[in-house]
């Protein structure tokens, strides 16, 4: 008997894959960082200075996430699993890959629908509904904060992401400006035989290596086509 091993696909996603589900990206004219200062709402210092404002910022992100639905791009990635071993590494804090039905998802920057203790980072809890407030405490009595990685904080899942990427036969990068590290390092971790696709309407401005296959289109347009090709 001989077992055929599935080829390994790693998918690195960023805010662009959820843009067509109605969630704002971070950079660019309509980006979240045009309306907020990163250091105010996405840093430990910002939380120390004005915790209520930071919680409100993430409460808004959480309601938008709950109202959003997975789009054709999230759904197409699920179809790939019938032929490939697919691992999704996402910088997104939304749960649209989970709700689309993808099986293996690694969140690099945390998960908006979860909270964690401000004192014990390992203590993570699901949030019931949209709102996390000052005074919401973990069972050990500490204030809860959003379970997201802020600028200046370590990215605990990065080593797992490196290991997955180094083993990939195909890497698909979707909707990320590749401006935030260490996540942006992942595209340099692939083995020499790995084929890389980049799906992003602005891909031409990303300064990619020559052998990268670029699909400069919106994710919901490119992904169903790419998945169909990879299934044949
Ligand atoms: N389909 C595909 N890509 C799109 C679409 C779309 N419909 N719309 C926009 N994009 C692309 C943009 O061209 C851009 O290159 O998505 C990318 C979004 O880039 P950013 O806003 O920088 O988001 P991202 O790369 O995910 O940001 C990384 O920055 O602030 C932090 O923690 C936050 O995880 C986030 C990290």
How would you summarize the topology of this molecule?
Layout: E1 8-13, H1 16-19, H2 32-35, H3 38-41, H4 44-49, H5 51-67, H6 72-79, E2 85-90, H7 96-100, E3 105-107, E4 110-117, E5 124-126, E6 144-148, H8 158-166, E7 170-174, E8 195-199, E9 213-215, H9 219-231
Parallel strand pairs: 1-2, 1-7, 2-3, 7-8, 8-9
Antiparallel strand pairs: 4-5, 4-6
Helix pairs in contact: 6-9
The protein binds adenosine-5-diphosphoribose.
3D structure, described in words:
The chain is α/β, with parallel strands linked by helices and 232 residues long. It has 2 domains: 1-22 and 70-109 and 155-232, TPP-binding domain (Rossmann fold), CATH 3.40.50; 24-67 and 113-148, SIR2/SIRT2 'Small Domain' (2-Layer Sandwich). It contains 9 helices and 9 strands. The chain has helices at residues 16-19, 32-35, 38-41, 44-49, 51-67, 72-79, 96-100, 158-166, 219-231, and strands spanning 8-13, 85-90, 105-107, 110-117, 124-126, 144-148, 170-174, 195-199, 213-215. The strands form 2 sheets. A 6-stranded parallel beta sheet has the order 3-2-1-7-8-9, sandwiched between helices. A 3-stranded antiparallel beta sheet has the order 5-4-6. α6 (72-79) packs parallel to α9 (219-231). The radius of gyration is 18 Å and the shape is globular. The model has no long low-confidence stretch (mean pLDDT 95). Adenosine-5-diphosphoribose is lined by residues 14-16, 19-20, 25-27, 31, 91, 109, 175-177, 179-180, 199-202, 218-219. Residues 14-16, 19-20, 25-27, 31, 91, 109, 175-177, 179-180, 199-202, 218-219 line the site of adenosine-5-diphosphoribose (APR).
